[in-house]
Amino acid sequence: MSLSKMDWVTSLKEYNVKKGKKKSESEVRSEEMETFTKLYTELKGPSKQQDKSYSVIPRFYYKLPSEDEVLLQKLREESRAVFLQRRSRELLDNDELQNLWFLLDKHHTPPMVGEDQMINYEDFLKVATEAGPKCKPFFTATVFAKLLQTDPYGRISIMQFFNYVMRKVWLHQTRIGLSLYDVAGQGYLKESDLENYILELIPTLPQLDGLEKSFYSFYVCTAVRKFFFFLDPMRTGKIRIQDILACSFLDDLLELRDEDLPKDAQESNWFSAPSALRVYGQYLNLDKDHNGMLSKQELARFGTGTLTNVFLDRVFQECLTYDGEMDYKTYLDFVLAMENRREPQALQYFFRLLDVQGRSYLNVFALNYFFRAIQEQMRQHGQEPISFADVKDEIFDMVKPADPLKITLQDLINSNHGETVVSILIDLNGFWTYENREVLMAENNATNQAEGSQQDQDM
Questions:
Q1: CA dihedral for 377, 379, 384, 385, sign (positive or negative)
Q2: Which phi and psi angles does 168 have, rounded to 5°?
Q3: How many CB atoms lie within 10 A of CB 198?
Q4: Coil, strand or helix: which one is 234?
């Protein structure tokens, strides 16, 4: 018998001897606790007292108070309000901006470039010393270098610098204004938060003075949907305040403060009263049974009335409906997608509908599935259907996908032909426009030449 085997036998005998002895309940519990403590300590690792880094690393996570903790919630709201008020007081007011313009005008560096006054870095620093502490963040070498262009004397335009300051102040003011509606205080606005912001903004926009108060809720819904359609394509139900400030939508909305805004600018602005009334009027005209919702048959009359039944079926399968009918909010998403087919967010909307197999790509089957409906519409109008094989080849040639047999959403976006592909597959009028593009282009050129010659004669 080997030594290891003898040791094993000895250990077994000792275990049996110990097992034979009866232990009290307290001794058993004591041993269990000792064993548990030993294992827990080994698994937990070094204690906070042993690890010096715990005293150096600052706390970076603070748990939000729950709904039951009313006092903590009120304290948090009050502290945020105080913080935002302090930040607001740090911004330049109108008098301080006027004083800044006066100082820039006083210290400008000749000669002028046309009617534009210029300033060099030395005079720039002189203005900084006189402008006060609130202006200090704007008078840095970095800002000066950003605005420096091709001036032979190394100067920047006073007007460009002042516009830069104005824009910065406006951005900070707007951010603070939006943050007041950020209930969670996490830098996001939920749909209800943005609705409250726009509703309270309406009285400050002269271009919306003519709206009846009964239409306010529909106007707010129309305005909010554009923000969420483009800034929340993944449908998370919230958008970052930073994204709102970075896009141009808020500029378009606040453009309505201009009492003399031209009519063409109003018509092209989604947030204007004429635009909102147009969209809502179209919705009411489609709603033939006046139940406040749209059925598939009613939506089929949208635009030129040439959308295919297969595409409309997919809209009602994939989009939010109530008892098979579409409400105004879902209709707004549909309109935004149809009117902005070039944009990635609209292509994402359509791609979800076209991806009938749910494979995250379009193959020959998916293209044929939708184009057969176009062929059927052509037969109904007495036209000879176009061969699918030819259309399929043209689509793949336009998109040039990374995989020659699959078209992904990114392929559509990268190709810059996503709008054309979508129109070919869902709308007979869109397909007809694509097929006759050369004839239409020649007609447009002829019209433009005729108008140009007429203008020359008038001159």
A1: positive
A2: -65, -45
A3: 20
A4: coil
Q: Is the dihedral of CA 204, 207, 209, 212 positive or negative?
A: negative
Of 209, 199, 215, give the one whose Cα is nearest residue 283: 215
- Under DSSP, is residue 204 helix (H, G, I), strand (E, B) or coil? helix
Please give the Cα distance from 371 to 354 (Å, whole number): 11
Q: Omega of the bond prior to 404 within 30 degrees of 0, cis?
A: no
The first and second tokens of residue 389, run together, are 């094989």
SS3 at position 384: coil
CA dist., res. 151 & res. 118, Å (int): 9
d(Cα 325, Cα 295) in Å, to the nearest integer? Answer: 5
DSSP letter string, 56-106: TSPP---PPPPTT-HHHHHHHHHHHHHHHHHHHHTS--HHHHHHHHHHHHH
Distances (CA, A) of 26 to 15, 30, 36, 39: 20, 6, 15, 20
Radius of gyration over every alpha carbon of the chain, rounded to an integer in angstroms: 34
Strand partners, 407: 362
Give yes or no for a contact between 119 and 165, defined as CB atoms under 8 angstroms apart. Answer: no
What b/e string do you get for 301-339 counting C-beta neighbours within 10 Å, with b at 16 or more? ebeeebbbebbbebbbeebebeeebbebebbbbbbbbbe
Tens of pLDDT along the chain (459 residues)?
444 555 655 655 565 555 555 567 777 788 878 888 877 777 766 555 556 676 778 877 878 888 888 898 888 889 888 999 999 999 999 999 999 999 999 999 998 888 889 999 999 999 999 998 999 999 999 999 999 988 899 999 999 999 999 999 999 999 999 999 998 888 999 999 999 999 999 999 999 998 999 999 999 999 999 999 999 988 899 999 999 999 999 999 999 999 888 989 899 999 999 999 999 999 999 999 999 999 999 999 999 999 999 999 999 999 989 999 999 999 999 999 999 999 999 999 999 999 999 999 999 999 999 999 999 999 998 888 899 999 999 999 999 999 999 999 999 999 999 999 999 999 999 999 898 877 766 666 655 555 555 555 555
The reported pTM is 0.79
For residue 105, which of 115, 93, 91, 94 has the smallest C-alpha distance? 115
Position 145, amino acid: A
| Phi, psi angles (nearest 5°) of residue 157 | -75, 130
Helix (H) or strand (E) holding 189: strand 188-190
Question: What is the identity of the amino acid at 23?
Answer: K
Beta strands 238-240; 118-119: pairing state: unpaired
